[in-house]
């Protein structure tokens, strides 16, 4: 079956969504199971520290999987990397579901994490490289909404098996963990229908295939010989050739050459760090614990409230698809961080007053409102933006290594947050939430002075920007596309800017339908 145009873009989008639903499902599935009597009994009632390790070791696996793409990502290609990630996820899910001791479970968690780390380092890059500049951000954000959808899905699957009353014994936790293996099946079915990224093909000198894939993406009976197909393909090939001529090495990851790779990798990785140090996974992983221990709710009510909060998270994550291309990345990051910070500060105030017996009930409901608001505004801003920004900001030659480092930063930060949260809640109480407030306050000036706007710019224009704009402070050069146009003129811009072709119009139609 040879898909083209809009049908091909929809298939690419669906393939990436299967990978990202699993990302969210994996994030939340064990949090609702690890404290149940059936799970604890199966593993001889592990200590709280060991239980925290069982939950958090998944993030170490994701970290390993992400970093592995530094070495094998450009060798495997985008499609084969996604398949490899899916295979490892299936193996890890089956290992977890069949676990009868802690070592067995930890091995399964690590293997699943490695597979998911490979996917998170590859899928955003693949989608970005297969999209036009006019709808690239919306497409990636829509996929990230599916990531967040996986979190309430896992919450309510856990609730159904633990509190539903129809499943008993260890099956209450084994079946939800086994369900992780379902999502990669969608990827395995769709991956034969979609082509390799034309930019990866150009990087490996397969120029004839670049023309073929560009024609497929164009649709509307376009052929590799059409003038607009040849022009678009040649821009991709010239960009790959230019980077190859720079004769780069792994040292380019740690220095600023003509393309400023170090600066771009840092710009791509720091938002992933900030995404976690807003405290989101302290809430996602340990929401039921916060509700039951800090606010005095019953386990059943805590599970219900946690599931409702994840729905607010999902609803918020759907909204950026509507406005990301108009508003850009910078405003969403800056204003979203301010709103998230205020919500977390309000949660700290509510948790403080919950210590007073006479105010515990009212403060508990106030804390619920704060958490729902926090998850909603986080979903509408920081849940997806870092995953859009990192593939856009890095050069072609460093796109997979840059995304691998960004993804690894995400997972190591996630691990730290998950590991310290139980102890932080126990020892610091309401003050623990102030840690995230402090990080967010410090991050706002960084975003304003150092992070440029990538929205609307082609990936080739981003390269031109960093060749010309050498300073880290970007107050006078906030918008990449505007800066390139002002400094290169209309004629030069035409050399790097994609034409508004039928493929672009088809993709805009697709994104509008998704909205």
TrEMBL record:
The chain crosses the membrane at residues 12-30, 50-70, 82-100, 106-126, 138-157, 177-194, 265-286, 301-323, 332-353, 365-389, 432-451. Keywords: Membrane, Transmembrane, Transmembrane helix, Transport. Its main location: membrane. Gene3D superfamilies: MFS general substrate transporter like domains. Residues 491-515 are annotated as: Disordered. It is a multi-pass membrane protein. It is found in: Membrane. SUPFAM superfamilies: MFS general substrate transporter (SSF103473). Residues 505-515 have a biased composition (Acidic residues). It comes from the Eukaryota. InterPro entries: MFS_dom, MFS_sugar_transport-like, MFS_Sugar_Transporters, MFS_trans_sf, Sugar/inositol_transpt, Sugar_transporter_CS. Pfam families: Sugar_tr (PF00083). Residues 12-455 form the Major facilitator superfamily (MFS) profile domain. PANTHER family: MAJOR FACILITATOR SUPERFAMILY (MFS) PROFILE DOMAIN-CONTAINING PROTEIN-RELATED, PLASTIDIC GLUCOSE TRANSPORTER 4. Belongs to the major facilitator superfamily. Sugar transporter (TC 2.A.1.1) family. This is General substrate transporter. The lineage of its organism: Eukaryota, Fungi, Dikarya, Ascomycota, Pezizomycotina.
């Amino acid at each position: 079956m040879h898909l083209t145009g809009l049908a091909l873009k929809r298939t690419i989008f669906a393939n990436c969504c299967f990978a990202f639903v699993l990302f969210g499902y994996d994030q939340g599935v064990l949090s609702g199971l690890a404290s149940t009597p059936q799970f604890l009994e199966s593993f001889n009632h592990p200590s709280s520290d060991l239980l925290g390790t069982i939950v958090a070791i998944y993030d170490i696996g994701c970290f390993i999987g992400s970093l592995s793409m530094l070495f094998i990502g450009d060798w495997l290609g985008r499609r084969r990397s996604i398949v490899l990630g899916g295979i490892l996820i299936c193996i890890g899910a089956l290992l977890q579901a069949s676990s009868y001791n802690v070592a067995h479970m930890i091995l399964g968690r690590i293997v699943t994490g490695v597979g998911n780390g490979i996917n998170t380092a590859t899928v955003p890059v693949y989608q970005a490289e297969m999209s036009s500049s006019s709808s690239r951000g919306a497409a990636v954000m829509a996929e990230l909404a599916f990531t967040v959808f996986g979190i309430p899905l896992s919450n309510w699957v856990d609730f159904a098996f633990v509190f539903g009353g129809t499943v008993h014994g260890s099956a209450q936790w084994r079946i939800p963990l086994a369900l992780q293996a379902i999502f990669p099946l969608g990827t395995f079915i769709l991956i034969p229908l979609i082509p390799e990224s034309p930019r990866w093909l150009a990087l490996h000198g397969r120029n004839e295939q670049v023309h073929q894939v560009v024609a497929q993406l164009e649709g509307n009976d376009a052929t590799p010989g059409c003038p607009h197909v040849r022009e678009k393909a040649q821009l991709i090939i010239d960009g790959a050739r230019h980077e190859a001529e720079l004769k780069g090495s792994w040292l380019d990851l740690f220095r600023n050459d003509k393309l400023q790779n170090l600066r771009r990798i840092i710009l791509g990785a720091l938002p992933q760090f900030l995404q976690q140090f807003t405290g989101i996974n302290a809430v996602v992983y340990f929401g039921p614990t916060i509700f039951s221990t800090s606010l005095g709710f019953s386990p059943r009510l805590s599970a219900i409230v946690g599931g409702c909060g994840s729905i607010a998270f999902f609803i918020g994550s759907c909204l950026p698809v509507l406005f990301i291309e108009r508003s850009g990345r910078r405003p969403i990051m800056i204003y979203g961080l301010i709103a998230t910070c205020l919500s977390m500060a309000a949660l700290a105030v509510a948790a403080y007053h919950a210590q007073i017996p006479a105010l515990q009930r009212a403060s508990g409901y106030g804390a619920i409102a704060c958490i729902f608001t926090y998850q909603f505004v986080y979903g509408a801003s920081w849940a997806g933006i870092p995953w859009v920004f990192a593939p856009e900001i890095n050069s072609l030659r460093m796109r997979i290594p840059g995304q691998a480092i960004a993804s690894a930063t995400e997972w190591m930060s996630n691990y730290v947050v998950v590991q310290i949260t139980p102890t932080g809640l126990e020892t610091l109480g309401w003050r623990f939430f102030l840690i995230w407030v402090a990080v967010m306050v410090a991050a706002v000036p960084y975003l304003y002075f150092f992070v440029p706007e990538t929205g609307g710019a082609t990936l080739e224009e981003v390269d031109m920007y960093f060749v010309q704009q050498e300073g880290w402070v970007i107050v006078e050069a906030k918008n990449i596309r505007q800066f390139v146009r002002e400094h290169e003129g209309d004629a030069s811009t035409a050399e790097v800017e994609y034409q508004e072709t039928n493929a672009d119009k088809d993709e805009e139609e697709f994104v509008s339908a998704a909205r």
